[in-house]
Amino acid sequence: MQHAGDEPVLTRYTVTEQDAAGPFVKIPADMMDRAQLERLGYENVLEALGEKFHASPKLLRELNRGKTFGAGDEIVVPEVSAPKAKAKVKAATLVLVKSARVLRALDKEGKLIAQFPISVGNPRDALPVGKLKIVTEVKDPVFEFDPAKLGDTNPRHTKAKIAPGPNNPVGVLWMGLSKPHYGIHGTPQPSLVGRTETHGCIHLTNWDAMKLSAIASPGLAVNVEG
Asked: Cβ–Cβ contacts within 10 Å for residue 176, how many?
């Protein structure tokens, strides 16, 4: 396997029966159709493995040409396991830098302990510069769809509850901010993180949202910079 410094870049993984079994579900494009689903799970094994190994399905296919990704297949994947090291340090402050599209976690001495790429709100719905804090945290959240808040003018679209799952519009984790209706959350489209604008909320990949949850909690200060 290739190495970056002393750390391996790639490793081998055997697809398990559980990986291949799902359950998988086709996610419809229309939000009213999504509201009929009991859970917004992965659509297929490639999507599930992509999230597990922080890679796009396209990259996994390129690394494993000829593989079907069935149970028992040995595949090449990015090495993303956490190093065995010191105890996890909790964040004392989060700094959200909109211009750089990054979220930084600092310890009590102001040292950087983690940094995540993010998508930020468009100019109309941008999170204002200033001091906020995390007020709530929900894992596997239900999404409260409200077309009026999202500028959705489709006459057949009404308020609806969208079931939890990795393909939920807010991903697998929601951290509500002290500015009402704004939050830091996951996304079902990791390839768009850092590349597109949002309706105001801060988007991370689902895997980074869970990493953030391990070091941050309600009550934590969030300093928003331009």
From this structure: 20
Per-residue pLDDT of 167-212, as tens digits, reads: 999 999 999 999 998 999 999 999 999 988 888 899 999 999 999 9
Q: Which residues are paired to 185 by β-bridges? A: 174, 203
Tell me how far CA of residue 10 lies from CA of 4, 60, 156, 178, in angstroms: 10, 11, 47, 40
Q: Strand 183-185 relative to strand 202-203: parallel, antiparallel, unpaired?
A: parallel
Number of alpha carbons in the 13 Å side-chain half-sphere of residue 92: 7
Task: Check residues 86 and 117 and name the one with the higher pLDDT.
Answer: 117
Burial (0-12, 13-18, 19+ Cβ within 10 Å), 206: buried
Phi/psi region, residue 135 (left: phi>0; alpha: psi -120 to 50; beta: rest), is: alpha
Question: Domains, the chain, ranges and CATH?
Answer: 3-78 (no CATH), 93-225 (2.40.440.10)
